[in-house]
Design a protein that fits this description.
Blueprint (H helix, E strand, L loop, with lengths): L1 H25 L15 H15 L3 H13 L32 H14 L6 H15 L19 H7 L7 H9 L5 H8 L6 E3 L4 H5 L13 H10 L9 E3 L11 H7 L6 H8 L2 H12 L1 H16 L22
Antiparallel strand pairs: 1-2
The structure holds protoporphyrin IX containing FE.
């Protein structure tokens, strides 16, 4: 009898084995329905706080979109960017690409506190960043996509990762492409995601070199349209006024559209890293032309590339944590 029972138990366990394996394969993957049961209102709450913030200040859409990029390129999409300095943590907010530049952290705080009220310790800051980036794109007229979810938050930050992995606006084409490839992104992703510069602003300090001394010979960047350059020089002098703001796409600065690519064709891209997509590589030049001509194609690729970027090395399952406050790691 005992023998028969243990045989039956073994049979039963064997029958369950494929199920366990199958469940396991979900481990490590993100999926859009992640909060459907644990926090059904999560997406609605993020959207409403983002919408309010963008209504208060249209530029906020651009700032939130950029935060997801600056998060994902450093240790993966794990909200490491949102940590303030404390204890052994040196905040990524102090890095060269972020200092005096990355903004929108108060909006993340507002979203997080609304979510903690609705479903405590459930929705990660990393997922909030991914959702806020999508909502910002939609609110300004861009494409929508379903955001894969289930990221968890890091218990550390990397200042050096932030300085090294995020490309600089005066980097060479190959350097920028290499930094994208190191994240598993390709040239198509690079061009499509650079299309984010259809909204938002840049400081004078980020493109000054192009106006006065692009290659060290005292001459401006000749791939910058001359009268546009003269106009930029009026508020971006040789020295000082570093923080003066300029639209990245001067035609429709708060609208997510393909004018960014049309600007590049007119040699009116603001950053050197923008204009070189047209001038330094045949394949990216072709993509710029296609996106300038076909807004739908740009939108489709942008959505795909955002999902790809959002999938960079997430912390899942038992790795990382769900922070209670996006600025601090949890204390136990
Ligand atoms: C390809 C390499 C890239 C470089 C070199 C670059 C560089 C920059 C720089 C220098 C600024 C202006 C910052 C300032 O002066 O304060 C900026 C702004 C911005 N970037 Fe990028 N970026 C790149 C790619 C991306 C990507 C992939 C995204 C999003 C997916 C993005 C989204 C934005 C947005 C939306 C803004 C405007 C932010 C605001 O107005 O607050 N950028 N970027």
């Amino acid at each position: 009898m005992a023998k028969a029972m243990s045989f039956l138990i073994i049979l039963f366990l064997l029958a369950l084995a494929p199920l366990c394996l199958c469940l396991k394969t979900y481990g490590g993957y993100l999926y859009p329905q992640f909060y459907d049961h644990s926090c059904p209102k999560a997406q609605e709450i993020v959207k409403s706080v983002v919408a309010k913030a963008v209504a208060r200040e249209p530029r906020m859409a651009a700032s939130l979109l950029r935060l997801h990029f600056h998060d994902c390129f450093v240790k993966g999409c794990d909200a490491s960017l949102l940590l303030d300095s404390s204890g052994s943590i040196i905040s990524e907010k102090m890095s060269l690409p972020n200092r005096n530049s990355a903004r929108g952290f108060e909006v993340l705080d507002e979203i997080k506190s609304a979510l903690e009220k609705e479903c405590p310790a459930t929705v990660s800051c990393a997922d909030i960043l991914a959702l806020a980036a999508r909502d910002s794109t939609v609110l300004t007229g861009g494409p929508t996509w379903e955001v894969p979810l289930g990221r968890r938050d890091s218990r550390g930050a990397s200042l050096s990762g932030s300085n090294n992995n995020i490309p600089a606006p005066n980097s060479k084409f190959q350097t920028i492409l290499t930094k994208f490839k190191l994240q598993g992104l390709d040239i198509v992703d690079l061009v499509a995601l650079s299309g984010s510069h259809t909204i938002g602003n840049s400081r004078c300090a980020s493109f000054r070199q192009r106006l006065y001394n692009q290659t060290g010979n005292g001459l401006p960047d000749l791939t910058l349209e001359q009268s546009y350059a003269a106009h930029l020089r009026t508020r971006c002098p040789r020295s000082g006024e570093d923080q003066n703001l300029f639209f990245l796409d001067f035609v429709s600065p708060t609208k997510f559209d393909n004018f960014y690519f049309k600007d590049l064709l007119a040699y009116e891209g603001l950053l050197s890293s923008d204009q070189i997509l047209l001038t330094q590589n045949a394949q990216s030049m072709e993509l710029v032309k296609q996106y300038a001509e076909n807004n739908e194609l740009f939108f489709q690729q942008f959505a795909k590339s955002m999902i790809k970027m959002g999938n960079i090395s997430p912390l899942t399952d038992t790795r990382g944590e769900i922070r209670k406050n996006c600025r601090k790691i949890n204390t136990y």
